[in-house]
Amino acid sequence: MGATTSLANRQLSVTPGQAVEATVLVRNNGTLVDQFTLDIVGDSREWSEVTPRVMNLMPGQDGEATVRFEPPRNSSVPAGQVPFGVRVISREDPPNSSVAEGAVDVEPFMDLQLELSPKSSRCRTKAVHEVVVENSGNYPIPVEVITNDPEEQLKLSLDHSALTVQPGTSAFLKLKAKPYDRFLRGADKRLPFGVTAIAPDQPPVNMDGTVVQQQMLPKWLLPAAVAVLAAAVVLAVLWFTLVKPTVQTAAREAGKAAAEEAQAELQEQANLAERRAVAAEEKANAAEKKVDEMAANGGPGDGAAGGGARGATTDDQGVDISDGTAVDFRITTDADAQADPAEFESFAVPNGAIPPDKTLVLTDIILQNPRGDSGTLAIKRGDDVLYATGLQNFRDMDFHFLEPWTFSPDQPLTVEVSCQLPGAPEPATGKCTPAVSFSGRLSGPTPN
């Protein structure tokens, strides 16, 4: 049959921080001796207890227990009715446990606090404080915050003044304090003010603060200005007594050294020009001497430009190199790029440019490399190389021979090119296209 449970008083009232008690009656309705466990259920279990928690009852016997409610005096327990239950659990018949229900009325209380941060501030034109309104009570409180200036020296303003602070929370307000008057120099002024929080049916809560007004000009400004002026005077003295003479001396020495260096360079250039003039004069004398010798021998057999009769000069093959018909032709190349610089591609005189029974006498050549190819170009007579040069050494270059080159029919003229293109992959790809223009005469064997 379990147990029956009843409360002597189902409606209780308690002030936070105090206690109230109620009596619980328990009857054993079973036929056996039973043990009963008592506990509290509901929101009040954190701040209530039952004594005793365990009781043993004979069949039909009644027992009493005391329930004590003691809510803390803080915002954790809101004001108002809090339902509760006293549960009795039978060891012999757990399913037939019983609960006696009631309610405890937690009375409201107010705990309003006011803080000012900082309490004292320093400023020249405007100070900012923070007003903190804290509600440590157990119900919402409507609050009005006002400021007061007993000496009427400050303009005080709050970002808002009316608010409702919930239990266990704080509200933060910004307070700006601006002095009405300013001063450039002088002692600090202490300007007091007050903040008051007003709530219904409660005395006002006050907090005092102070604004320390400072002079507009910083205190360090005058000493700093004096120090800067003194430093400027010292620097000026050092400049005119030490630095400026040293700089002027160094400048004069540097100018003198630069002048000497320039003079030496000009002298060196003059000496070089003189040496070149002497060398040119020596070459001119040698050429004049050679012309005189050739004139004494019967004519200018070297084919050089100039006047004079042309004699029957012959080379070592019995060819008259001073007579014949003029000839001009051009050998153009189209050489494939080579990975090996020793590989050359040969290009011959264009067909029909030189008759097969004639000897070619060359007096002028023009080398052309308009694309700036890289590699090597060689001019050959038969198997002999007469001239070789790097393609990168010229774009347009011409030669006039005092001693003509002769090419007999069995010693043909050829141009060979080894083309190397920088950055070309392996195997190399691309082409080199230098060209050589030739001018001279065509001569036959000297008649007997």
UniProtKB/TrEMBL annotation:
<feature type="compositionally biased region" description="Gly residues">
    <location>
        <begin position="298"/>
        <end position="310"/>
    </location>
</feature>
<feature type="compositionally biased region" description="Basic and acidic residues">
    <location>
        <begin position="283"/>
        <end position="293"/>
    </location>
</feature>
<feature type="region of interest" description="Disordered">
    <location>
        <begin position="426"/>
        <end position="448"/>
    </location>
</feature>
<keyword id="KW-0812">Transmembrane</keyword>
<feature type="transmembrane region" description="Helical">
    <location>
        <begin position="220"/>
        <end position="242"/>
    </location>
</feature>
<protein>
    <recommendedName>
        <fullName>Hydrolytic protein</fullName>
    </recommendedName>
</protein>
<keyword id="KW-0472">Membrane</keyword>
<keyword id="KW-1133">Transmembrane helix</keyword>
<feature type="region of interest" description="Disordered">
    <location>
        <begin position="283"/>
        <end position="319"/>
    </location>
</feature>
